[in-house]
Design goal:
By secondary structure, the protein is an alpha/beta fold. The protein is built from 9 helices and 8 strands. It has an 8-stranded parallel sheet. β6, α7 and β7 form a beta-alpha-beta unit.
Length: 232
């Protein structure tokens, strides 16, 4: 098989897997796939587009911008899912549809003021450091509701939900337990802001997809299982 065919097949396999898990957990039609194309070239994104994929996740701005520009004619949805320095917010505000990793008010203020008026508000999720790891960014669960209260009035940003990257765990029950905490927090967020359209729980990667779908993920972020391992 050509490289392109392999990626297409991987993408279709991942989509079939998601569909099967949606059925298994009575969640049919509720889980969207975000194809995480970080470090991969535009041709590999194109292979996914050929198989019907529209949403792509990127962590590194320069790497992302090359693809966004090369594929601008295709109307794809770009999701920023990495750590963002405050001096780089403008490019995200101007070129992305989603920002999954918001955890600093300063970044929110800058994205709000830099979002071009002719674009829809920038959708965002609050990043939760659900395992309270030193090495990871995000808010602790106890900070999320107050943080959200400061953001819901920004006119050019739209709060959609929560995102997390838990510790890698092999054990399925343990994976579920962490995602269940996220679901609980998500319900609290929805209850606190009933007038907002809070509908997104961004969680689950190649290694913990099933546990995430079992516990209510609405966007799963898959890189390796579609594009293969990454070379940095
Ligand atoms: C890289 C990355 C992914 C994809 O991870 P895989 O294990 O390759 O599926 C998902 N989410 C975030 C935030 C990432 O940085």
């Amino acid at each position: 098989m050509t490289h392109r065919k392999i990626i297409e097949k991987n993408l279709l396999d991942v989509k079939a897997k998601i569909a099967e898990l949606e059925k298994k957990y009575q969640r049919v039609g509720q889980v969207e796939l975000l194809a995480v194309s970080k470090t991969k070239p535009a041709q590999e994104v194109l292979a996914c587009v050929g198989a019907g994929q529209v949403d792509f996740g990127e962590n590194y701005l320069q790497d992302a911008m090359e693809k966004i520009q090369a594929l601008a004619h295709l109307n794809l949805n770009w999701h920023f899912i990495g750590d963002l320095q405050s001096n780089k917010t403008k490019q995200v505000a101007e070129n992305f549809n989603w920002f999954h990793t918001l955890h600093r008010e300063k970044i929110a203020r800058r994205l709000n003021s830099q979002r071009p008026k002719n674009l829809e508000p920038l959708n965002f999720c609050i990043e939760v450091n659900i395992d309270e790891e030193e090495s990871k960014s995000g808010l602790s669960a106890s900070q999320v509701l107050n943080f959200a209260a400061n953001l819901v009035d920004f006119k050019n940003l739209k709060l959609r939900g929560l995102m997390c990257i838990p510790k890698e765990r092999e054990d399925f029950a343990q994976q579920r337990q962490v995602f269940a905490q996220m679901r609980e927090l998500f319900l609290q967020l929805q209850a606190k802001f009933p007038q907002q359209k809070i509908d997104t729980l961004s969680m689950g990667m190649s290694g913990d997809l099933e546990a995430a779908i079992a516990e209510g993920a609405t966007i799963v972020r898959i890189g390796t299982d579609i594009f293969g391992a990454r070379n940095y």
